[in-house]
Amino acid sequence: MKTSTNRGGIADAPGVSAATVWRWLVFALVAAVFVWACVFGSRLAQSEWLSMEPRHRIAQWTQGGQPWQMKQWAQMQGQLRQALSITPDNPVLHDNLASLYALRGQSYWTTQSLRRAFFLDARRHQVTSLQLRAVNGRTWAALALSMHALGEPPANVYGALGNARKFSPSDPKVQRMVASLVLAHWGTASPEWRQWTLGLYQQPDVRMRLGLETMFKTYGVAVPALL
Fold this sequence. Notes:
Layout: H1 18-62, H2 70-86, H3 91-107, H4 112-132, H5 137-149, H6 154-167, H7 172-184, H8 191-201, H9 204-210, H10 212-218
């Protein structure tokens, strides 16, 4: 009498073909990917929902000049930190938190201890953001501001400004930030940086858009003669 050499192999079980087994394996794999995508997508959506209002508020406070209350600031900070706990590798969230801390630090500009405390937090998030996305000129410009606020050597500030100009040469927000920091460090600015800033001033539309005339006067730099 012949004995079976199959020791329970599923492919040789009555009525189950190898093709059927492979179809079930593929189905299981697709189902697993679908479940993972749903979970991951849900986390992204939750993070996006939490950060939506803070982004809007920060834009109002920094660009529109609208006043903010401490309670509002704390609420936006809490929402951004919660969103970051869900998606910790999101550079935009790090930028948002950095902007929030910088905003608070600027309100304490004349109080060194408080200014340093908030700009240290801002710099920490800016560095993390740049580790995740090093080609963001706006983040480099914001980092340069934090370095300036923390009293770091001008060489460090100019290094960040160089990257800001490199990655976002035509971004008005970057141009405004870079020009203001060059003017703030005018005494140590190289001829190249001075020429770049003066070149912006010589362009009427750029001068008006960036408010350069007021900026020159604010930092006590002689307004250049127009060509």
